[in-house]
Design a protein that fits this description.
This protein is of the alpha/beta class. It has two domains: about 190 residues, Rossmann fold, CATH 3.40.50; about 170 residues, Rossmann fold (3-Layer(aba) Sandwich). About 30% of the residues lie in helices and about 20% in strands. It contains twelve helices and 15 strands. α4 packs parallel to α5. It starts with 18 loop residues before the first strand and ends in an 11-residue tail after the last strand. The mean pLDDT is about 90.
Length: about 400
């Protein structure tokens, strides 16, 4: 597997300058793993102190020698700071966003040459438009109903990008952000760019090298399913990666569903007239349903129900960002969904209590190593030590695939 993102920021960072990996929480495992993959030997907790005053105000401090009076305000001179920000079990996204702003500011106010924000699930992305015509650069014509949806709200995504830039963030790296508006405004606002990483190569590698879909390997073939219009581009990208990585030997097909909302919490799914494959192509084949995120799981459950009714073998749901809400856990426990494969962009999904009953059919692809290679590429550093598979897999012993037959 090869990285395809380094060129997007080539020349922006001097590969000879030192760098530091820090986080919004000292004991954040995702950030700690990235530090280890980037060969940082110092603990994050020994780089920056994340203290809160008695009056509850947050005040980060890059730790320095108390006796050093020569480099006051310049401790980070010539250093690039990589700030890793993920979700937390104790802090809200609002609190974490504020921490990112102040840590970035602390880095720049103490001489940092550059600040890179790594936020796998970019905050405030759902607030990617506002109530006026200049609030969001979409790739479709907005309707009066779309403007009304945001009436009275701030255009928060733009404000967040502007706040990050003002705080000192030079570029941001995220994973599978579906909003064209967010991508465009971050690219325009941050002075050294914005990377929206696609996990298509990671998903394709896992599909090809695991037993998650037996029909792909037994000659029956595999169907790749988009549950709605917004997922089709990414599903096609994963399909292209499967063909590329298998040198064209993998037998796959594409099927497009479209959803019709019948109520606030209910949807119906039908195969789109423009779908490359038809309902007759489903019987006897495993199907992978792919989407960028899940919050309630209503659409996915309905799509998978119809696939099973049409005679599908295994139906596996691949999703990048998994929000472990009670509603999602209930909907995805449906018997029509044989397995769920997600990344750990929201690391809390690794917690077995968060998985609940879904642990019996959940696989988590840990992408810290994959992201670390991108970070090192962006910083102009070698990645030769990151050999082998570029991700790790976490699977509960309750999952039958954790115990393959002898």
């Amino acid at each position: 597997m090869s990285t395809k993102y380094a060129g997007a920021l080539s020349g922006q960072f001097d590969g000879k300058k030192p760098f530091l990996i820090v986080s919004t929480e000292s004991d954040e495992p995702f950030a700690i793993d990235i530090g280890a993959y980037c060969r940082q030997r110092v603990d994050i907790a020994d780089i920056v102190s994340l203290k809160t005053f008695v009056n509850t105000e947050f005040c980060p401090r890059f730790i320095s020698d108390e006796q050093d009076m020569a480099e006051i305000g310049n401790k980070l001179a010539g250093t690039n700071v990589v700030l890793v920000s993920t979700v937390s079990s104790t802090l809200s996204r609002n609190e974490l966003a504020w921490r990112s702003l102040l840590i970035a500011r602390a880095a720049k106010d103490n001489g940092a040459a550059g600040v890179v924000l790594v936020e796998p699930d970019l905050f405030f992305s759902a607030q990617d438009r506002g109530p006026r015509s200049d609030h969001g650069d979409t790739d479709y014509k907005r309707t009066i109903g779309d403007y009304k949806k945001f009436d009275g709200q701030p255009f928060t995504s733009l404000f967040y990008a502007q706040a990050l830039a003002l705080a000192g963030v030079d570029c941001a790296i995220t994973v599978h952000n579906h909003s064209v508006s967010v991508q465009r405004l971050f690219e325009a606002t941050l002075n050294r760019g914005f990377l929206n990483l696609s996990p298509a190569d990671v998903f394709a590698d896992y599909i090809l090298k695991s037993d998650v879909t037996p029909s792909l390997h037994n000659g029956t073939g595999l169907l790749m399913c988009a549950p709605d219009l917004g997922a089709r581009a990414f599903v096609s990208e994963v399909d292209d990666e499967i063909r590329r990585q298998s040198a064209g030997n993998a037998k796959t097909g594409l099927i497009w569903y479209t959803k019709r909302r019948t109520g606030e919490r209910s949807v119906s799914s039908i195969i789109d007239d423009c779908s490359p494959c038809a309902v007759e192509d489903i019987a006897g084949r495993d199907v992978i349903v792919i989407d960028d995120m899940v919050r309630t799981g209503t659409t996915i459950r309905e799509c998978c129900r119809q696939l099973k009714a049409a005679g599908a073998g295994r139906v596996v749901y691949f999703v990048t960002h998994f929000y472990s809400s009670p509603e999602a856990r209930e909907n995805l426990s449906s018997a029509e969904i044989d397995e769920i494969v997600t990344t750990n962009t929201l690391p809390l999904i690794l917690n077995r209590d968060r998985q609940g009953r879904l642990r019996r059919k959940m696989t988590v692809i840990k992408i810290e190593k994959w992201i670390s290679r991108v970070i090192l590429d962006v910083l102009g550093r070698p990645t030769d030590h990151l050999k082998g598979r570029i991700y790790n897999v976490d699977i509960s012993t309750k999952n039958p695939r954790a115990h393959p037959p002898a």
